[in-house]
Specification:
heterodimer; A: 257 residues; alpha/beta; Rossmann fold; six-stranded mixed beta sheet; four-stranded antiparallel beta sheet; 9 helices; globular; B: 397 residues; mainly alpha; ABC transporter involved in vitamin B12 uptake, BtuC; disordered N terminus; ATP binding (chain A)
Chain lengths: 257, 397
């Protein structure tokens, strides 16, 4: 299990500071949910940790600075799925998932039998085996999300960074995908960092949460610490009622002002 | 527990010992940080490699598809060699070609003039058509991959406008002869120069080489160079026909032109074919390609340079033949799938066959007069393309 730490993360895009001095800490095998209003910098944070954006500060995996790793080495530690992944309509599910093996294949090399076996068994595990030969353009929303997850898992990285894995999914599929991520996390000891716009869902699944507002950390801690009526009013401008579920996890309910 | 790094890999599907309990499980090749990938935990989670999924479902260039493509190419080249304005019986052509093989002696009964016509005109014309068609089609496929845009063609970044300008300048200012080597050299330099100009402009304007900026830079460079070309062309009206003739394109020109471009063709094709897998990775977007450890900017630059070299080589000896670079890759995609490992090699072969067939039509329909080949590629290619679109209905891309 790999723990993830970051400190003093700042990202400047087009002279605009999108993220400033953000720190985070996730224990190996834990699930961190990053929440915040639209434009707060959640996706930027995830991209910076994934190494997709230039940033200042440090990201450490098990104490090793990601900055010092070669891109391929980094990609074996961190798997990232963006909020709106590009799914070429005529690529097959198998080919797409197989792309996850990229960090293990030499620049001009080709996939080995093992790469294909890893891919095949991940598809099997996510119940996607029957879809292996299907074009991405012919999948439903829930299937697409699972395929994206499969590609990230094929990467066999101990840390999963998922940007809004439930966007555009209906209630049932949201739950399905998050349950799946949780099962995989527990089975393989994966460390998971997700952004989630649905606060209730975030509170249900995360071990710890971080609230980002205007590119800075506004609060972090257990779901009960972060999901408070006061914080949500201050940073989302939303009036909510917080209830405590039987498992101690907070539930968030919108109330009309 | 089988060591996954063991060279004797388990059979497809890894059912024998359940070693398929990915992900994160077997870290043999992966050099994870210590303890990052728990060993057997994965087996508990419905993995266990049940009913072994075959490990070879990845899209690959199937031998059958390759054979079909080569068969079509062979047919086109045979037709190209047998057909022509001069009435030479096909049997005699075959005998004459056999006669040219080492250790074979077959009297074809062709007159020396007919022999010369066959070997010095028709054969090199067929070969040049194949080389140029293949180069334009593979370059078009590569451009479409790099820009993730189905409308990209090999001339997108100013190769055509650059070559047009330099060629026009040579014809008008130096009174250069279209038969001489100066024209191919000038066209080649112009094509390469146009692309480099667009690339430089795109990088200055775009900070980090975004594809959209690059396309716009290509549009700007094309417009600018075309304007200059038109101006130079107007300086000398009497050369208009030669300039226009060059622009419409021809694959006539003899062995000399083939030897001229073979080195560039070989290098660019080798580089492009080697990058099929990486173009597939690029097709999921830059962010994900980078997160997979790929240097997207570098891959794009290498592929662009190789594709532009292929385009420049083709333009240098054949002028501006349209349609091949944009349509052939799409036809291949429809027929054989979207992976660039399939699209690139089959476009190369398909483009070659397409242009050879096109040239056959160009020189026989109005024989002994000739149609410009660019006219034929569009006239024949467009309906053909529509037919392929209709026959192979697919998901909207």
């Amino acid at each position: 299990m790999s723990d993830v730490r970051a400190h003093d993360l700042s990202v400047v895009l087009d002279t605009r500071t999108v993220l400033s001095d953000v720190g985070l800490q996730v224990r190996g095998g834990d699930w961190l949910a990053v929440i915040g209003a639209n434009g707060a910098g959640k996706s930027t944070l995830l991209k910076a940790v994934a190494g997709v954006l230039p940033y200042s500060g440090e990201v450490l995996i098990d104490g090793t600075s990601v900055r010092r790793l070669k891109p391929r080495e980094r990609a074996r530690l961190l798997a990232y799925a963006p909020q709106s992944p590009v799914l070429p309509a005529d690529m097959t599910v198998f080919d797409y998932a197989l792309l996850g093996r990229t960090p293990y294949i030499p620049y001009l090399g080709r996939e080995s039998r093992r790469d294909r076996e890893v891919t095949a068994s991940v598809l099997e595990r996510l119940d996607l085996a029957p879809f292996a030969g299907r074009a991405l353009g012919r999948l439903s929303g829930g299937e697409r999300q699972r395929v994206v997850l499969a590609r990230a898992l094929v990467q066999q990285a101990p840390v999963l960074l998922l940007d809004e894995p439930t966007t555009a999914l209906d209630l049932g599929h949201q739950q399905q995908v998050l349950e799946l991520v949780d099962r995989l996390r527990l089975a393989d000891g994966l460390t998971v960092v997700t952004t989630l716009h649905d606060l209730s869902l975030a509170g249900q699944y995360a071990d710890s949460m971080m609230l980002i507002s205007d590119g800075r950390v506004a609060a972090s801690g257990s779901p009960a610490d972060v999901l408070t009526e006061k914080l949500i009013d201050a940073h989302f401008g939303a009036r909510v009622r917080i209830t405590s579920g039987p498992d101690g996890r907070p539930g968030v309910h919108l109330e009309r002002p | 527990m089988t060591d996954p790094s063991d060279s004797t890999a388990p059979p497809a599907g890894g059912t024998a010992d359940g070693s398929a309990h990915v992900p994160g499980a077997a870290s043999g090749r992966t050099a994870h940080a210590p303890g990052s990938a728990p060993g057997g935990a994965g087996t508990a989670e419905g993995g266990a490699g049940v009913s072994g999924a075959p490990a070879g479902r990845a899209t690959r260039l199937r031998p059958a598809a390759l054979l079909v493509a080569l068969g079509v190419l062979l047919a086109s080249m045979t037709t190209g060699t047998l057909a022509g304005a001069a009435d030479i019986a096909p049997g005699q052509v075959m005998l004459e070609l056999l006669d040219r093989l080492p250790f074979v002696s077959a009297g074809s009964g062709l007159t020396p003039v007919e022999q010369g016509l066959l070997v010095e005109l028709r054969l090199p014309r067929v070969l040049l058509g194949a080389v140029v068609g293949g180069l334009l089609a593979i370059a078009g496929a590569a451009y479409q991959g790099v820009f993730r845009n189905p409308l990209a063609d090999p001339y997108l970044l100013g190769a055509a406008a650059g070559a047009g300008l330099t060629t026009t300048a040579v014809i008008v200012l130096l009174k250069g002869d279209t038969e001489a080597v100066t024209i191919p050299a000038a066209a080649f330099a112009g094509a390469v120069g146009g692309v480099l100009l667009a690339y430089a402009l795109g990088n200055v304007a775009g900070r980090g080489g975004g594809t959209a900026t690059l396309v716009l830079a290509g549009v700007a460079v094309t417009a600018f160079l075309t304007a200059v070309q038109t101006f130079v062309q107007q300086l000398s009206v009497e050369d208009l026909q030669r300039i226009y003739g060059w622009i419409l394109g021809t694959v006539d020109g003899g062995w000399e032109r083939i030897t001229l471009i073979v080195p560039y063709a070989a290098v660019s094709v080798a580089v492009l074919l080697a990058h099929g897998r990486l173009l597939d990775v690029l097709s999921v977007g830059d962010d994900e390609a980078v997160s997979l450890g790929l240097n997207a900017t570098r891959v794009r630059l290498v592929v662009l340079l190789a594709a532009s070299l292929a385009t420049a080589a083709a333009v240098a000896v054949s002028g501006l033949i349209g349609f091949v670079g944009i349509v052939v890759p799409h036809v291949i995609r429809r027929l054989a799938g979207g992976s660039y490992r399939v699209v690139l090699p089959l476009s190369l072969i398909g483009g070659a066959a397409f242009l050879v067939f096109g040239d056959v039509i160009a020189r026989t329909v109005l024989a002994p007069a000739e149609l410009p080949i660019g006219v034929v590629t569009a006239f024949v290619g467009a309906p053909f393309f529509v037919a392929v679109l209709r026959v192979t209905k697919r998901v909207e891309t």
